[in-house]
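Last lecture ended with a question: if I hand you only a sequence, what can you say about the shape of the protein? Today we answer it with a concrete record. The protein is tRNA (cytidine/uridine-2'-O-)-methyltransferase TrmJ. Below, first the input exactly as provided, then the predicted structure, then a couple of comments.
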Amino acid sequence: MPGAGTDSTKPWQEGGPVVILVEPQLGENIGSAVRAMGNFGLTRLRIVNPREGWPNPKAVTFASGADRILDNAELFPDLRSALADLNFVAAATARERGMQKSVLGADVVAAEAATRIAAGETVGLVFGRERTGLYTEEVSLADVILTLPVNPAFASLNLGMAVAVVAYEWFKLASGGALPFQQPDRYPIADKADLFAFFDHVERELDEALFFRSPEKQPVTTRNIRNIFHRVGLTRQDIATLHGMVAALVEGRRTREERTAARLGGKKRPAKAAPDEGGAGPES
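The predicted structure:
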C-alpha cells in the first residue's frame, strides 16, 4: 500500500531466509528489492558484485526507509563465496535449465525454508541479474529451482517484484496469514429484545401506511420482512438508526399531509393506494 502503513513504534521483523542478489545492475532495483524484504520480514541481504559499486545512493532512495537492511548488507565477489555458509539454497529462474533438480513454487520453498530454519539451518534465496537472470552454472550451485506461475509468453519479472512475491509467501507462512488489522467491533450485536421492538415499530407503521393490503398475505409478508433483518446481523447502533429512519419517514408523511390539508382549506386529499405486496417473496 503506497505511502501508508509504516509504524516505527512496532517491532521490526527479523530472521528468515537470506536474500542473495547476483550482479544487480541498478541501485533502484536493489532498493526496491530491499523495500520488499522489509515489507515481508526478511532482513539479511547479500549482494554479489553489483555493477554500479557499493554503497549506492539510489538503493537508499528506493528502499524507502528500510535502511537497516542496506546498512547490514554483505558484499561478495562471487556467488560461491556468498553461498559458502548456507545449508539450503533455492535459485529463482523463469527458464527450464535441463537439470535434475526439484522445481518448486514460492509457497513450497517458503514451507521448506521454515522447516529448515526451525531445525537450525541457514537458507538462501538467490535472484539473478535484471537482464539475463542467473547463469546455468549459478543455478547448478543451488539445491532446488524456485519459479513462479507466470505468463509463459512474458515470464520475466522486475527484480524487486520477484523478491516481493517470494518474500510475501515467506511472511504469509511465518505470520500465519494474520492481517495487520481488522475492522473494530464498535457496537455490540443487538439482542432479541431490541430486534423484536424494532419489528413491532416497523410493522405497526407499515400497517398504518396500508402496506398490508391483504389480510391473508400479511403473516407471510411479516415473516419475510423479519427474515430480511435477521440475515443482516444488526448491531444496537443499527437498530437505533433504523428506528430513527422509520420515525423520520412517518413524521415526513404526516408533515406532507398537514401541508396538503392546509392548501386544500382543511380538506384531506384521498390517500394514495399502497403498492401491492407482490415483492413479498415466494411464500406470497
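Comments.
1. The chain is about 45% helix and 10% strand.
2. Residues 277-284 have pLDDT under 50 and may be disordered.
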